[in-house]
Amino acid sequence: MQGKTVELPDDETCLHFRDPNDGQLPEGVLDNAGIHCILKNYFLSGGTGELPINETWPELWVQAEHETCALAIIRMTLEAQANAPDWTCPNCHERIEGQFQTCWNCGYTTDAT
Ligand SMILES: [Zn+2]
Fold it and tell me: How far is the CA of 66 from the centre of ligand 1 (A)?
């Protein structure tokens, strides 16, 4: 199971986090905060079934100097999503759990922040 070594500059670090929304990653949130990040393994999520699950979680690479800030932003974002109240889709009236911003039934997307 070797052969996945990734060469990176010393000043970049990898943040592992579990994405509770299975895909709605805070990449854009970091971009908005001026933190450049690189997302890896995103499309491996739920992939081959051969890799241990913790190797298929998304990896977010940021510059080491931004690690603390990035982690804080991610935590805040995920907590905000998890604590968001349920909402009713105005388009199809489906009940949607608060952490989701897109209606699973019709694809309606909220602009709530
Ligand atoms: Zn809907």
Answer: 37
Give me ligand 1 centre to Cα 23, in Å: 19
The Cα–Cα gap between 105 and 38 comes to 31
- Ligand 1 centre and the CA of 64: distance in Å? 40
Please give the model's pTM, rounded to 2 decimal places: 0.50
Per-residue pLDDT reduced to its tens digit, 81-102 = 778 889 999 999 999 988 788 9
Distances in Å between the alpha carbon of 48 and those of 2, 15, 20, 41, 95? 16, 22, 20, 12, 32
Percent of the chain with pLDDT over 90: 16
